[in-house]
User: Fold this.
Amino acid sequence: MVHLSVERQQVSTETMTATEALSMTVSYTLEVANARFGGFSKLLFRWKGSIYKLLYKEFFVFCLLYAVISVVYRCYLDDDQQKLFEKTALYCERFANFIPMSFVLGFYVTQAFNRWWGQYTSFPLPDNLMMVVSGNVHGQDERGRLLRRTMMRYANLSSVLILRSISTRVRQRFPTLEHVMKAGFMTEDEQKLLDHLHSDFNKYWMPLTWFSNLASLARKEGRIENDIALRLLMDELNNYRAKCSMLFHYDWISIPLVYTQVVTVAVYSYFAFCLIGRQFLNPNKKYSGHTLDIYVPVFTLLQFFFYAGWLKVGELIINPFGEDDDDFETNQLIDRNIQVPTVPQQNSYAINTTRLGKKKQLLPLHLFLKVSMLAVDDMHQNLPLLEKDKYWVEKFPFPYTAADDPHKQAFMGSTYDMRLIGEDSSDTPMTSSTVGKYMPVHVWPSSKLKAKKRNSVKLMCLSGEETNAENTAHCKKPAGDQECDVQYVQETHAGEDDTQMDTNKATF
Assistant:
């Protein structure tokens, strides 16, 4: 038997790595929680994760090249050379707009954004799986605890293996399987099994196979009560595996290279022509559109900032598993799911581990005590005391702080404030019994109710006689079980310019 130990120095290193990862993604959600004057303007002065940080080098190069060409044109060219340069500038300015910048660049960034969001939603989180394991793999003894913890360790090991293949941050944290083993995600025996299995493809699926075998073993031992629970567990496992597989395929299949090349060439060639075509020519020569010489092409620089910045956005989000400011915090997500905490080694104790029922080695119990392990271990059947809630006997007003208004009227529906016409009371109830009375109704928005004249509403029962709604507000159901189709016709009093007629049908 081999005892798997974790050195404090490595634990501190891993904790420091996770702490550094916390400061990567730039979040400004709280700053824009309320729409106010200058809300977005305050975000323009941030450097980390900003467009200035991404674009300032390209922007500086563009300004430098423009200045060099301008100085050469003004100071080093003779008259004939200046005339040739001016014709070239006019030609470039005229035909540069033929490049479909907005369409090509906009479509590319849209596709890159959809791909970026799809990769985030495909990140394998063990939350659903750990709930199913905790609720269906029973047993509070050492064996039941071991089964649940090992299942979740295999699930998290699979996500670590796939993230090592696609994320530079995770690869730097776990450069070899030895590092993964020392971090506690797998045992030495499990590492040997991974190494000895020959496969030309990624082997992230192996721990999930071990998971399914353990689930089958737990069913045979009666830890899983029935096949329905086992099926639910396997369905969640397959969903988890599908997300791991989707991340792998996102990394494998990118946006076609030809499209990325087309967009890049379109942007760079457009602004290469702008370096010449947007030069300020001699105003004395009366060229069309060149009556002013201000040396600095303000709007050309703004155009470069917008279009080149747009291209940089696509470059940033096309692969969010790198080390940019706004890339995914993969190390933090791993630490959330399962992490070796910094607890003293002497406070832990070891238990026998098994693989398919065979004793192999010892593992310290202090390993893997974050999120998924808490759900299937410390929290398993650890329920709080059942007590009657605060509103068991009578209703109390829900508490509000002074910062919120507790007297806001609840939304009841867009037609809630509509009123009846032809009745004195705006809140006249309507009887809905099939054997009782039925109020003939014509509905108008309450805002128009006061401005309209009172209209007479006639109720015409197809099996009876006409009655006036002002005198008789109902039509009794005829004898027998036959249905009575009632038609309500609203007519405007004589003297109005237009005659309105709205017909509604109701069936008793």
Residues 227-252 form the longest helix (26 residues). The beta strands are 350-355, 358-364, 419-420, 443-444, 456-461, 466-468, 485-491, 502-507.
